[in-house]
Amino acid sequence: MYRDVSSFNTYNYGDALYWDARYIQEAKSFDWYQHYSSLRPVVRRYIPTSSRVLMVGCGNALMSEEMVEDGYENIMNIDISSVAIDIMRRKYEHVHQLNYMEMDARDMSFFPDKSFDAAVDKGTLDSLMCGSDDHISSVRMLREVSRILKPGGIYMLITYGDPKVRMPHLTQSIYNWKIVLYIIPRPGFEKPAGSSSNPQPEPVPISDTGLLPADFVLEDPDSHFIYVCKKMDETTEVSDISSNPLIADAL
C-alpha cells in the first residue's frame, strides 16, 4: 500500500505558532514514528558515535538523549518552536553532549557549509510537506541539509513516505546523494504467526529510478521508511540546478 497523506492535513505544520501551542498543551515527551531502540541498528551502521550530528526538528523527543546514552558525543538539536527548545534546553542543561537552538530548518545559515557529519530527520520533512507552500519548503530544507553536510556525510530521513512520493525529492542532482532504503514496521506491529524475525534490518532493493520493485509487498502496510542519503564528493553546477523544475521554484 503506497500512500502520501500530506494532502489530508489542514494545519500549517511549517508555522512556529502551531508547534508552540502544541508543545504548551502536550508537555510529555513524544517520539514520532519510531523510538531510538528500533532505529539503532541503522543509525549505528551509518553514523559513528564520534560524529557531529544535527537533529533536524528535535521537538520534545527522547531520541537525542537515548543516542547520548548509546555513546554519541555531539548532537546539535534544532526546532522551529521556541517553546520546545526552552523545555529541552532546561531539561538537558547538564548534558554537555546535547545543545539546543531555535531554528527553522529551511534557513540554517547560522551553520557554516560542511559543518556536520550527519543529520537525522524523524518527521520534519513530512511536517513541512503537510503545510502551506509544501513544495518550496521541502526544497529549501533539503538544500540546507545538503549544504551543512560534509562530503561523505549522512542525511537519515525517517518518514511515512514511500519511494514513490519521497524519491523524486531526494534524487535531485543538486544534492548528489547516494541513497540506501530500509523499511521497518510501525511500533506494535505483530507479524503473522510463523514469519521470520530479523532484528537487523537489511537494505531494500530499489530500481534504477529509485522505486520499489513492482512485486514488492510491505509486511506492514503502515511501515516507516528510512532513507540513508550519503553526500558524495562531486557537486552540481548552479546552471544545472536552476534548470530543474523541482528546484527552480525555490531559488
Question: Into which percent range does the helicity of residues fall?
Answer: 25-40%
The computed structural class is alpha/beta
Strand order of the largest sheet: 3-2-1-4-5-7-6
Rounded Rg: 18 Å
- Roughly how many Å apart are the termini? 34 Å
Task: Kindly state the number of beta strands.
Answer: 7
In terms of topology, how is this protein built?
Elements (H helix, E strand, L loop, with lengths): L15 H10 L10 H11 L5 E5 L6 H7 L4 E6 L2 H10 L6 E5 L13 E7 L1 H5 L5 H15 E11 L3 H8 L6 E8 L39 E8 L6 H5 L2 H4 L3
Parallel strand pairs: 1-2, 1-4, 2-3, 4-5
Antiparallel strand pairs: 5-7, 6-7
Task: Fill in the keyword field for this structure.
single chain; 251 residues; alpha/beta; seven-stranded mixed β-sheet; 30% helix; globular; disordered N terminus; Methyltransferase type 11 domain-containing protein; methyltransferase; transferase; Lys/N-term_MeTrsfase_sf
Brief sketch in words of this structure:
Residues 54-156 form the Methyltransferase type domain. The protein has nine helices and seven strands, in the order H-H-E-H-E-H-E-E-H-H-E-H-E-E-H-H. It is an alpha/beta fold and 251 residues long.
Describe the structure.
Helix content is 30%, strand content 20%. It contains 9 helices and 7 strands, in the order H-H-E-H-E-H-E-E-H-H-E-H-E-E-H-H. A 7-stranded mixed beta sheet has the order 3-2-1-4-5-7-6. The longest helix has 15 residues, at 134-148. The radius of gyration is 18 Å and the shape is globular. Mean pLDDT is 86; it is low at 1-10 and 236-251. Keywords: Methyltransferase, Transferase. Pfam families: Methyltransf_11 (PF08241). This is Methyltransferase type 11 domain-containing protein.
